[in-house]
Amino acid sequence: MPFTNNRAFKSAPRLLVSAEGMHYQDADGRQILDGVSGLWCVNAGHGRAEIVAAIREAAGILDYAPGFNMGHPLPFALAEKLATILPEGMDRIFFTNSGSEAVDTALKMALAYHRAQGEPERVLFVGRQRGYHGVGFGGISVGGIAPNRQAFEAQLLPHLDHLVHTHDLTRNAFSHGQPTHGAEYADDLERIIAQHGGSRIAAVIVEPVAGSTGVLIPPVGYLDRLRALCDAHGILLIFDEVITGFGRTGSAFGATTFGVVPDLMTLAKGITNGAVPMGAVCAARRIHDSVVSHAAPGIEFFHGYTYSGHPLAAAAGLATLAIYEHEGLFERAAMMAPTLEQAVHTLDDSPHVIDVRNMGMVGAIELAPRAGAPGARAGEVFMECFRRGVLVRQTGDTIAIAPPLIVSAEQLHEITGTVRDVLAAVA
Ligand code: PXG
Ligand code: PLP
């Protein structure tokens, strides 16, 4: 099973059998309030009839069409729709089946672009400590989560470096929204440029808000500074928006919330509301045009997946974007963000809590680790919340809360109230 303690799971399985709106139902018939949108993907809530109908309809019309030198209408329609909410000019879109595939695709696009531009020596990728970019060899190479790399360290990509992360509790603990201190962490890119040479660096990849590693919100000015440094040295900036995309930060994308436009953007999860696997890479038009116009006759970009732009995924994506638009869910996320902020910060003085942070519709509660057992306390909080009917996410000693954007104020308080009761009870 994926990222699972297989032995523990098989001795005490937790099975979810159905879902509707804000709730899962488990195999024992219990209702569980979804505090983390499944795995950060069900942004419009569960069981949306329009998405189900779109998938059904698409499956009855065209089960599958090859994507290599062939096409079908749905992914083109989805790309056009997506382009209307993406930052201006980021309208060349390549579909994958997951965030991991999107990340590997974006890294390849960066290399292809520099070759097209006559700079084939730009090959080094810069990730960031604590970054999560999926589990492909590209993604774990630029990623910065130690256990995801350690067993595979001997075979990672050869040309890599990592920025320092931005998590700084000495100055920023209990921040509301973006932390004040730490724009200068972006200057770590200057160290890397000095070491390797700016003209050898292909791309910098970061999550606008690091999700998986525990919700690390960018300090005010940090992303702008990264953007400026990349521009000064001809380095592409990739935003991995697999979690931050589709309303999570209070607007369509992290790029729009923070007002910093990358060159390439990776998406997944919320693109289909989690209903069918799908990912995407969005590229600035000039990147696409350079690769295509400089290529020899024939295939311009030697890359693709059997299921790129699959009919069911594209249909689900179109129905999902229609819901986001018609229900104004990104605006709703911005409107509900202060309620989430207030709710999570009621935990500021709970036992074990060393930080609470929030941005848009995501919040995190960081606990002091138990001596000699990192993650154990938060792991128990996760399990006990689940037992009490609330699903949250545990990562290390952090509890993350990222409910569907349809969540009510009452449900937000139910989530944080349950966490508070559990924190009072846990050792
Ligand atoms: N990039 C980012 C920023 C992600 O958050 C991926 C890439 C990979 O996507 P796929 O679809 O290949 O899983 C992700 C995925 C967690 C958790 O525990 C986070 C993710 C996946 C599963 C669990 O927070 N993020
Ligand atoms: N392995 C083999 C033997 C294949 O033929 C293919 C695709 O044709 C793949 C792996 C890659 O599969 P996918 O295109 O679904 O990523």
Explain how this protein is built:
- With 427 residues, the protein is of the alpha/beta class.
- It has two domains: 6-47 and 328-425, Aspartate Aminotransferase, domain 1, CATH 3.90.1150.10; 52-326, Aspartate Aminotransferase, domain 2.
- The chain has 16 helices and 15 strands.
- The strands form three sheets. Strands 4-10-9-8-7-5-6 form a seven-stranded mixed β-sheet, sandwiched between helices. It has a four-stranded mixed β-sheet with strand order 1-2-3-13. A four-stranded antiparallel β-sheet has the order 11-12-15-14, with helices on one face.
- α4 packs parallel to α13 (311-326), α5 crosses α12 (285-294) and α14 packs parallel to α16.
- The protein is globular, with a radius of gyration of 21 Å.
- The model has no long low-confidence stretch (mean pLDDT 98).
- Bound molecules: 3-[O-phosphonopyridoxyl]--amino-benzoic acid and pyridoxal-5'-phosphate.
- 3-[O-phosphonopyridoxyl]--amino-benzoic acid (PXG) binds next to α2, α5 and β14.
Condensed summary:
This protein has 427 residues and is α/β, with parallel strands linked by helices. It has 16 helices and 15 strands.
Give the arrangement of secondary structure elements.
Blueprint: H1 6-11, E1 16-20, E2 23-26, E3 31-34, H2 37-40, H3 49-61, H4 73-85, E4 92-96, H5 99-116, E5 124-128, H6 137-142, H7 146-150, E6 160-163, H8 169-172, H9 188-196, E7 201-206, H10 222-232, E8 236-240, H11 254-258, E9 264-267, E10 279-283, H12 285-294, H13 311-326, H14 329-345, E11 353-359, E12 362-367, H15 376-387, E13 390-391, E14 393-395, E15 398-401, H16 409-425
Parallel strand pairs: 3-13, 5-6, 5-7, 7-8, 8-9
Antiparallel strand pairs: 1-2, 2-3, 4-10, 9-10, 11-12, 12-15, 14-15
Helix pairs in contact: 3-13, 4-13, 5-12, 14-16
